[in-house]
Design brief:
The complex is a heterodimer of chains A (about 110) and B (about 110).
Chain A (H helix, E strand, L loop, with lengths): L3 E4 L2 E4 L5 E7 L5 E8 L3 E10 L2 E4 L7 E6 L2 E6 L8 E8 L8 E2 L3 E5 L1
Parallel strand pairs in A: 2-11
Antiparallel strand pairs in A: 1-3, 3-8, 4-5, 4-9, 5-6, 7-8, 9-10, 9-11
Chain B lengths: L2 E3 L4 E5 L4 E3 L2 E3 L5 E7 L5 E7 L5 E3 L5 E5 L4 E6 L8 E8 L5 E3 L3 E6 L1
Parallel strand pairs in B: 2-12
Antiparallel strand pairs in B: 1-4, 3-9, 5-6, 5-10, 7-8, 8-9, 10-11, 10-12
Chain lengths: ~110, ~110
């Protein structure tokens, strides 16, 4: 089983719909992250959480919200999806410390028509 | 601004040839540097990391990278590529304890 699991893997939806992407992990890490990947732009941080009571905005948080339901679960919501939110979304986890690598899920490909 | 640059968007090499992927960073203090690989349909996998000590670091899958402070570079190398190395490669720097900043990525194509 994967250490970091994202659901769904693919989603096609319409403008204005509310979307939730879910992430769960079995690595026991406190830190969790949501990124979006767009061609030519690399990965950009949307939100991150260092524990259940800690939520922080990343560089591109507008239009998104998150919920840290438990140490192992971190969900990303698009309250009213728009076409320019079409992208590949990744969840990641890490242990504490600057030298700790992040561990990624396989991504959710989201298309908004 | 603190950033990571991968100058090459796309590189094509022949199977068995050597490979070097470039990464330059802009950061005032000692950087914590990472290389990740993303195979199609998968998430990012850590290849190697550098924090201090020996400037030549070894990673998985036969990759290595060399940290050169004078050039602000952390280039990834492999002596002989295999078709399975076709993927996208990302350089990243940990600016603080809180998050990574990623380069734009380099897509590697392998010719048979």
């Amino acid at each position: 089983d994967a250490d970091v699991t994202q659901t769904p893997r693919n989603r096609i939806t319409k403008t204005g719909k509310r979307i939730m992407l879910e992430c769960s992990q079995t690595k026991g890490h406190d830190r969790m992250y949501w990124y979006r990947q767009d061609p030519g732009l690399g990965l950009r941080l949307i939100y991150y959480s260092f524990d259940v009571k800690d939520i922080n905005k990343g560089e591109i948080s507008d239009g998104y919200s998150v919920s840290r339901q438990a140490q192992a679960k971190f969900s990303l919501s698009l309250e009213s999806a728009i076409p320019n939110q079409t992208a590949l979304y990744f969840c990641a986890t890490s242990a504490g410390g600057r030298n700790q690598p992040q561990h990624f899920g396989d991504g959710t490909r989201l298309s908004i028509l | 601004a603190q950033s990571v640059t991968q100058p090459d968007i796309h590189i094509t090499v022949s199977e068995g040839a050597s490979l070097e992927l470039r990464c330059n960073y802009s950061y005032g203090a000692t950087p914590y540097l990472f290389w990740y690989v993303q195979s199609p349909g998968q998430g990012l996998q850590l290849l190697l990391k550098y924090f201090s000590g020996d400037t030549l670091v070894q990673g998985i899958k036969g990759f290595e990278a060399e940290f050169k402070r004078s050039q602000s570079s952390f280039n990834l190398r492999k002596p002989s590529v295999h078709w399975s190395d076709a993927a996208e490669y990302f350089c990243a720097v940990a600016l603080t304890d809180k998050k990574l900043v990623f380069g734009q990525g380099t897509r590697l194509t392998i010719n048979p």
